[in-house]
Design a protein that fits this description.
This protein is α/β, with parallel strands linked by helices. 46% of the residues are buried. The two termini are 36 Å apart. The chain is built from 8 helices and 15 strands. It is globular, with a radius of gyration of 20 Å. The strands form 4 sheets. Strands 4-1-5-6-7-8-11-12 form an 8-stranded mixed sheet, sandwiched between helices. A 3-stranded parallel sheet has the order 13-14-15, sandwiched between helices. It binds succinic acid (SIN). Succinic acid is lined by residues 16-18, 34, 63-65, 96-98, 121, 123.
Length: 326
Amino acid sequence: MADAKTPLRRVILGTGGTIAGRAARAGDNVGYVAGQVSAQDLIAAVPPLAGLPLEVEQVAQIDSKDMGLAVWQRLAERVAHHLAREDVAGVVITHGTDTLEETAFFLRAVLSPTKPVVLTCAMRPSTALVPDGPQNLLDAVTVAGDPQAHGVLAVCAGSVHAAEHVTKVHTYRVDAFDSGDAGPLGLVEEGRVRWLHLPDRPGTETPFDAQRLQRLQQATALPRVHWLTSHADADGVQVLALLAYGDAHPEAMPQGLVVAGTGNGTLHQALEAALQEAVSRGVVVRRSSRCARGRVIPGVAGALADTQGLSPAKARIALALELMGM
Ligand code: SIN
């Protein structure tokens, strides 16, 4: 529980998603439109939040499949603004499930926040017979006010996940997220967090990395990094087509490629040959795995560099930021 000195104010930033989705029929859990209900109305639908010192801002109202740099820049700026306030304990972000792990990883990579930044979501629209958003939102607000919470976290279906490990693993079930081999950081039970592992506390007391935020705000686009997959019967055509397109449109030449390999990051020989061609032309290539669990274990002579345990989705962001010198 927070002591008397802990600032209790939490700021909720709405970005859309199924949590803010609306369907024409209450029984419809798939035929809805995401990003329809305001964050203010989502809070009003959760009676235990009434009377808490909360602030709300609508940063975006989108289906998170359409997430991109412009919303990330605005979101990072608003998160940083509120984290810098002494009276704010933490920030909650309502977000679609589909790219939640990417936004979480991006904010962690750019801001390295000390205070908690908690992303939450829902798998059922707000109009569902039994929506999961209200409980997730309440749990996220609880986590954002917990004195042990630090950094970027995700809360869904009663579990707390770290940004670096959280992954959406199910298309439909409300318990759609997993942290792979790392497991969840904690569980939210009746308004309390039971930590299984404490989140890493950044080695600094500054609320966020202002220099990196400034670099991000100056960007007009992220470096072009594509994500490909190896599979039976794969060939190098996608890679060669990207290079050919880049020859015709230099502004679209890929700067990086992340490839989700089979098993321990192995690649079909035809795809690998095309990737080596890309490397010879200055494209940075990183090798991840398409397996849901585990990481690429280094040790194969001559192999392309691996993603140090990052999933392809997160490795793509990490490589883009690296190419920006961040
Ligand atoms: C979205 O990601 O915005 C739509 C899907 C969801 O939130 O579950």
